[in-house]
From TrEMBL:
<dbReference type="GO" id="GO:0030170">
    <property type="term" value="F:pyridoxal phosphate binding"/>
</dbReference>
<keyword id="KW-0663">Pyridoxal phosphate</keyword>
<feature type="binding site">
    <location>
        <position position="299"/>
    </location>
    <ligand>
        <name>substrate</name>
    </ligand>
</feature>
<dbReference type="InterPro" id="IPR022657">
    <property type="entry name" value="De-COase2_CS"/>
</dbReference>
<feature type="binding site">
    <location>
        <position position="397"/>
    </location>
    <ligand>
        <name>pyridoxal 5'-phosphate</name>
    </ligand>
</feature>
<feature type="active site" description="Proton donor">
    <location>
        <position position="368"/>
    </location>
</feature>
<feature type="binding site">
    <location>
        <position position="262"/>
    </location>
    <ligand>
        <name>pyridoxal 5'-phosphate</name>
    </ligand>
</feature>
<feature type="binding site">
    <location>
        <position position="336"/>
    </location>
    <ligand>
        <name>substrate</name>
    </ligand>
</feature>
<comment type="function">
    <text>Specifically catalyzes the decarboxylation of meso-diaminopimelate (meso-DAP) to L-lysine.</text>
</comment>
<comment type="similarity">
    <text>Belongs to the Orn/Lys/Arg decarboxylase class-II family. LysA subfamily.</text>
</comment>
<comment type="pathway">
    <text>Amino-acid biosynthesis; L-lysine biosynthesis via DAP pathway; L-lysine from DL-2,6-diaminopimelate: step 1/1.</text>
</comment>
<keyword id="KW-0028">Amino-acid biosynthesis</keyword>
<keyword id="KW-0210">Decarboxylase</keyword>
<dbReference type="InterPro" id="IPR000183">
    <property type="entry name" value="Orn/DAP/Arg_de-COase"/>
</dbReference>
<dbReference type="InterPro" id="IPR009006">
    <property type="entry name" value="Ala_racemase/Decarboxylase_C"/>
</dbReference>
<feature type="binding site">
    <location>
        <position position="397"/>
    </location>
    <ligand>
        <name>substrate</name>
    </ligand>
</feature>
<dbReference type="InterPro" id="IPR022653">
    <property type="entry name" value="De-COase2_pyr-phos_BS"/>
</dbReference>
């Protein structure tokens, strides 16, 4: 597992960040634009903090992933990982474009049904599916349940048999492959909670093939998130291919291999993962098996499509070696920097003169935690009170991980598509923070 990142090269400049984000550009008059829409205009109308998502960018990136698989001669089902961003507007777009969904909870399953994604195009992953969630999934006849343990397999068989239904399953194999990513987002090591130990998988697959209420389809794997090279994928897929061949030699039918997700994006200067390279890895290790293939991308298609807009509350510099820019966005909005020490690009919304001086700046939120920090020693032009910034690459694991910590209402969300924008979630009203809270009757009587 990778340690926390230590960067030795200079941070990218604003211009360098925009060069790697083609859906963003700086207009000399309107300032920062996303898919041709001025972000300042959205902030003027909706306020900050505010999430803005580019629907066109999401569609283009998904289309590139689909084309990469097709050009490699592969027929691969693409199931968007709902956990990356589960907004109904996103799921509606996913469904309209003909993609499936990868879910990890009953709530996500309900969202896919609200968005009219066909149950047959849904894959259910996750290490701890409840009986109620499994009943919901089996009752709908979803396409596939990725089984994470021998214990879960027995539960699925019992539930499906009781319901008089058949659950289509793959066994999620833990290949004990190090994806060389952050310790909190790696999932394919033997020490992780996910999946079935590789050495147990063949025997358990034979058992699955004979259980009532279960149709054993094959194997699945998922080794982590933010993976930038194909080496870990090839190592994991080679082990899965070994299992497929061994199962067939034992007389067992294998029709499906689910390759998981985890392809990474460029948050800083790292080259992002390439769908074409992923397709090559799948073809090299699994292409001759004659199985139905699937992938579960989340971060790669939607991460770069989103930004978080924020305004400067104040600039604190008196007596400071490095000034603090305190913003109205905070760790309750974007948790990744405090949770993962994640690096996100920061670009002012206003156009700044070429060659304008930049200086080291700490960008922090107002929450009463030292961890409420978006950037330290970031080279930025002077940001005065009231100026606005965009925090980049927040389309994945951004709004979906928000909370109301410090009684801060959830931020508004906006979708940009075809040159227009629409609010897809209004800013939460303060009174909504407690609308479902109940003061016990005895407490009011005593008062």
């Amino acid at each position: 597992m990778a340690d926390l990142p230590v960067y030795t090269d200079p941070d990218p400049t604003g211009a360098e960040l925009l060069a790697t984000h083609p859906h963003l550009r700086m207009d000399a008059t309107c300032g920062l634009m996303l898919e041709g829409v001025a972000l300042n205009a959205i902030a003027d109308a909706v306020g900050t903090p505010c999430w803005v998502l580019g629907g066109g960018t999401l569609k283009r990136r998904l289309a590139r992933m689909r084309a990469a698989m097709r050009d490699a001669g592969l027929d691969v089902g693409i199931h968007y990982a709902v956990k990356a961003n589960d907004h109904l507007a996103v799921l509606d777009l996913i469904g309209r474009e003909g993609y499936g969904a990868d879910i990890v909870s009953g709530g996500e399953l309900a969202r896919t049904q609200k968005a009219a994604i066909a149950p047959a195009r849904i894959v259910f992953s996750g290490v701890g599916k409840t009986d109620a969630e499994l009943e919901q999934a089996i009752g709908l006849g979803i396409g596939q349940i990725n089984v994470e343990s021998a214990e879960e397999l027995a539960i699925i068989s019992a539930i499906a048999t009781r319901m008089g239904r058949t659950a289509r399953v793959t066994l999620r194999v833990n290949p004990d492959v190090d994806a060389k990513t952050h310790a909190k987002i790696t999932t394919g090591l033997a020490a992780n909670k996910f999946g079935i130990p590789f050495d147990n998988a063949l025997g358990l697959y034979a058992r699955a093939s004979s259980l009532p209420g279960v149709q054993a389809l094959g194997f699945s794997t998922h080794i982590g998130s933010q993976i930038l090279t194909t080496g870990p994928y090839r190592a994991a897929y080679a082990r899965v291919a070994e299992l497929v061949r061994a199962a067939r030699q034992a007389g067992l039918d294998v029709s499906t291999v689910d390759c998981g997700g985890g392809l990474g994006i460029s948050y800083r200067t790292e080259p992002e993962g390439q769908p074409e390279a992923l397709a090559g890895a799948i073809k090299a290790e699994l292409g001759d098996l004659g199985v139905r293939l699937a992938i579960e991308p989340g971060r790669w298609p939607i991460g770069p499509a989103g930004v978080l807009l924020s305004s400067v509350i104040l600039r604190k510099e008196a007596g400071m070696d490095v000034p603090f820019v305190i913003t109205d966005a905070a760790m309750n909005d974007l948790a990744r920097p405090s949770m993962y020490d994640a690096w996100h690009g920061i670009v002012p919304l206003a156009p700044h003169a070429p060659g304008q001086a930049v200086a080291a700046t700490h960008v922090v939120g107002p929450v009463c935690e030292s961890g409420d920090t978006f950037a330290r020693d970031r080279l930025l032009p002077p940001l005065a009170r009231g100026e606005r910034i965009a925090i980049l690459d927040t389309g994945a694991y951004g709004s979906v991980m928000s909370s109301t910590y410090n009684s801060r209402p959830l931020a508004a969300e906006v979708l940009v598509e075809d040159g227009t924008w629409q609010v897809i979630r209004p800013r939460q009203a303060v009174k909504e923070l407690w609308q479902d809270e109940i003061i016990p009757t005895h407490a009011t009587e005593q008062a």
